[in-house]
Protein 1
Amino acid sequence: MEYVDKVLHDFNDIQIFAKIQFGSQRDTFDMIFDSGSSWVWLATDKCASCVNPHKYSARNSTSFA
């Protein structure tokens, strides 16, 4: 696994956000980070009730385990 150096941005010291990529196909997502958690939540194509129409597809990624 390679090291990634990422510039984070903030909005009025309330939200920390950045664009990050997932999977071998490098799908780009706008992420708002929860600074009180080490978890990252990502909507997938299996989520029928997720509001964001842009969803991650594991079947299109060769790196998904």
Protein 2
Amino acid sequence: MLKRLIVIALLLVSFNARAAEYTDVYYDPAEDGWGVFLVQSETTQFLAFFIYGSDGTPTWYVAILSDDGTGKFTGSLFATTGTYFPNPWQGKTTTAAGTATFTPSDPYHATLSYTVNGVGTVTKAVQRQTLTAYVLSGNYSGSGTGSIVNCANPNQNEPMYRSRFNLTVTQTGDTAATLVFSFVDQVHNGLVCTLTGPLTHIGRLYQLTGQSSCNVAGTPAGPMQAVTIDAFHTTSHGVEGHITAIDGCTASVHFASVLNTNN
């Protein structure tokens, strides 16, 4: 039973690093001054470029991209012009200008490529642009879902992993955090896992890299493990993210939680 609890705890430490969606501001830190606003709705992305023409003046392009099924988003690029902003609106002119592709490499970084008719192709490595810190601290209730497979011991496989937990998050500024998962569902009740480490803030997301330890009724349930939480972020009601670590198994788990407002 103890070994099973250890495996379940470690399940909370492996995942698919791809973010659910990529809405944010993107730029190249080495080329501050231009960038792209990206808003995603399901499998469609709308991009608004703030870039410059050959004369150095702002040039307005937008793109509408769709998930092509391979992990990247592709579509058409448009040039737009409109009414001088102080004047009554007389409409806009939209002209097909080329194509664009947004290819995520992880939840935080991507390659942006766009071809402008008569000009050529521009390819840039971009990342989410960090604006302000988020408050992660709080007491939450939530659940985890995913799978644990390919274990050396087949009895440890859980292809349909599910859990419920209470979660306490404490935060040290924008630099570190500790998450304590106290499981309350029937299968995992009594298991407590603490994940702690420094934070890296990239755009709307955080990454935590540190260590995890679990116990049952105060008794350690296995050794301390390396842990990474990717795509860790606030939502309108709480926090969510993906947690990774491997212990002879392949696992993928997403957790989501709601803030307990009465605390």
Protein 3
Amino acid sequence: MSKKKLGPSTLLYPMPAIVVGSQVDGKPTFMSASWCGIAAWKPPALTVGLQPIRHTLKGIKEHGTFSINVPSVALVKKVDYCGLHSGEKTDKSKVFKTFYGVLKTAPLIEECPVNLECKLKTSVDLGSHILLIGEIVETYINEDCLTNGNADPKKIDPLIFVTPTFQYHRLGEIVAKTFEVGKEGY
């Protein structure tokens, strides 16, 4: 098999298209992001990379809290809008219906089927981005996105971001059962 070198690149799939929320100047503001992932199980934690110029980062630094909102495919237009417009110049507090959880300063999006309310643990300056590490203090999910009491990705229908084509996708079909298919050998 022939391989082509691309140089250092961020080709790791899938990348969730998420909406990061913070409170700036007493109002919720939101930005779309895709460089986000689970970092730890206990306590539950995640990472998200934001450019230092992001208005949403101002609220995260001020309050030490933020939200990660997992939008469904149906919200693609609003998610893209939040990525195109800076909260410094555009009031995005009315783009979504919001609510607040236990932290009181991390706005959560009602329309998103999954919301992760986070407390900032630390941040690392990586150059082009600030890596935020947040402890997930509460998780909210729409009841209609559960099957037998568990989150159902098909019902959540999360939005996926793909580079280098810069297109949105949705999850595909199940290909195998985790921790089962490998028992057969290779």
Protein 4
Amino acid sequence: MYDHVFAAFLDRQLADGTALAAASDILELLPVPEAFPGLPPSRYLARFTCRGLIREAGGQICPGHECQIGVCFPGDYLRRAVPGLIVTWLGPSNAFHPNIRASAAAICLGRLPAGTPLVDILFQVWELWTWNAFNLRDPLDAAAAAWARVPANRAGLPLDRRPLKRRPGDPAVVQHRASSP
């Protein structure tokens, strides 16, 4: 049975998510095509090109420059939301943050009410990855939480202060890539 209310919700997520990505120098948002053409997308891949932290194989904590997540809105999303089924951490696999357990593809956004808009989810992930927000009370990564409790480590936070969305009138940042010879 076709759910018109849910389809309208998904249409709105596509419009709002696309608008946010167009107004961002940090976010790339890709809707995943549905199995049945004509349906609005219920799944997305998002890539954030901004600074977070990673832990290298030798244990060193250093900057990471991008992260990726998957977002999936199941058919009952307007009635209930199970955060672990909605948002999946896709990388980096060595992310270092109290609220990310990359080895389990888990990211904890805290309470996620049913029907939370895609744009709100994207802002929450950006805030976590850039260390603009973190929760130390019930961490997914105890080592990252212990690191974050050290005042000297917290002094450099957040890691990336650029806004996710450009303010009206701000010029777009043009990134030049080296061309292949």
